[in-house]
Every structure is written in structure tokens, then in C-alpha cells.
User: What shape does this take?
Amino acid sequence: MASRGILLSNLGSPDSPTTADVRAYLNEFLMDERVLDTPYLLRRFIVSAFILPKRPKESAEAYRSIWTDAGSPLVVTTLELRDLVQERLDEPVEVAMRYGSPSMTEGLSRLIDRAGPELREILFVPLYPHYAMSTVETAVVAAEAALGRLDPSIRLDVLPPFYDNPDYIGALAATLESHLESGYDHLLFSYHGLPERHLRKTDPTGEHCLRRAHCCSSPSSAFKTCYRAQVFRTTEAVVHRLDLPAEKFSIAFQSRLGRDPWLQPATDQEIARLGREGKRRLLVVCPAFVSDCLETLEEIGIRGRETFIAAGGEDMVLIPCLNTDARWVEVISSWCREGSLAAIG
Assistant: This one.
């Protein structure tokens, strides 16, 4: 029995790489109003008429290219992380995915059952370094709603984004060092993209993000929820830790969807540009993810590499996410111990 429990949360994955399961997953994902942020009827029309007829088959093929005997890499890795963190903690640790299985309700139910009637507090750990309405915000809202249905007397504490936390930066930098030592022409920091309107929506001032020149370098209270400013800060911290020359790295944003303006430059275009400009060995790291998934393994590791080679490059290496790296496991475990919320916040 325990008065406190830990719930690790990640994005999620289809139950299998079949077209039917991918369709169900995409429907749940894209019908989230914090992902596709249009009025419900328009969102339903867009998803049903333009995305679900063709996208599931294409995405299923992509998932099959990275699927393992154990299942989805993201789900498998997150469950392994849970087990390793659990070895280091006395409180029960469980996992919930925002979409797919185990669902938020399933993860919370297991945690409540394991902790027993003494449970009074849950530390909710969204496994996203940077704040976005389509990641951290939607996960927190879903967790609060599910816990409210299960047991509203239990308090939910949320671990804040950790984009510039020294322990996270140290773990991330350590994963890069051996690859850098092997030699490279360029290091690309590829972050998941967002529609520009998401940044404007999450700007509490209503007048800073993408509304002012050099907004991400001008101090503002908006930084607390500004994805773009936070990914810049992560990059700056890693670059400083590793003492990288300015001409040897750049930032790009991947995974565009739809025709609305998204954060620039686009990763696929940046990879092609670097190949055309004569870069022979390209390293790519994806710090928006702590667990390897479709967006890292297939989009970057397979398609990105093909793009680079076709543009004239010789070799492109995808640097693995933190996954279950020993240093990262220790960092997560330390955050989950009593009193660490104040330390990271």
C-alpha cells in the first residue's frame, strides 16, 4: 500500500500495424481538439473525408517497417522505462498513453489498484521535454478527466516540462558525444513541428509569440508555454554543454500535416539542402522525443536517410532517443522521488 504513485505518460501507438488498428488510432489522435484544433463538425469532416480514407494504409506500411516482435517501439520502450524506474522506487509506477493502449483510464486504474486505499497523490509525468497543447496540455487534461471519474479525492501533481533542466540536458548531451567523436559534417536538431497557430493560442500574453520580431530571444512570460522558445533553449543548452561550433549544427521541424503554416525550416527540406551543399556525414537527433517511435525511426531513420543520400550525402545517422539509457533512467527516477517537483520546477 502507498499514499503516492507515479504515472508515466507517452503519446501512444496503434495496437498493431494493420490498417484497421492504425485507422482507429489516427481517428482518436486527430479528433483531439488540441491536435486538430478546429470546431468539432469541421474536424470530423476533415478527418473522415480527407485523412481516414487513405492515410491509415500509408501509415500502416510505415509502422510495419519499424514494428518489432515485442510490438510498437514507443510502447515497448515506455514500459521498459517504467520497469527500470520501478526498480529504483518504493512507490508504484505505471504507464498510460494519451492515445491507444494502455489508455489513461487503464493506467490510472492499475496504479490505484496497486497503491490501494491509502493513495492520496499521483505524480503525473508527461514524457515530453517541451510544452505544447498537442502533447503536455492534452495529456494533463485527459489525466485530470480520467482521475475525476475514477477517484476525485486523489490529487494529481504534474511534472513540468524539463526542456532546460540540467539533468535532462546532461543525459541528452551524453547520448551525442560518442557519435560526435566518430566524426561528422553537420548535426541537425530535428524537433516535431507544430502549426504556427498553436503557438499563438498558447501565448498567455496574446501579443508575443510569432507577433514580435525575434520573439524567442526577447524575454517574456510566454516562454512558459512556448514550444518554439523551449526547443531553442534545449538546443542552446546542449550546444553549450558540448561546445559545438555554430556552423556545425542547425534546427528544423518535422512531421508537417495540412496546408496551414508550420514552424520552419522543415526537416525534410533541411536534410536535402545539407546533402546538396556537400555535407557527407549528417547526424540527426530528435530531442522532442524521449522514446524512439514512428517519427524518429521511420520518418528520419528511413525516409530522411533516403532523402539525404538522394541529395548527394554519403551517410546519415539517426542518434537514438534517450529511451532506457542508464543515465536517463536515473534522471527520471530522481524526479519521481519525494520532493523533486520543486527541484525541476
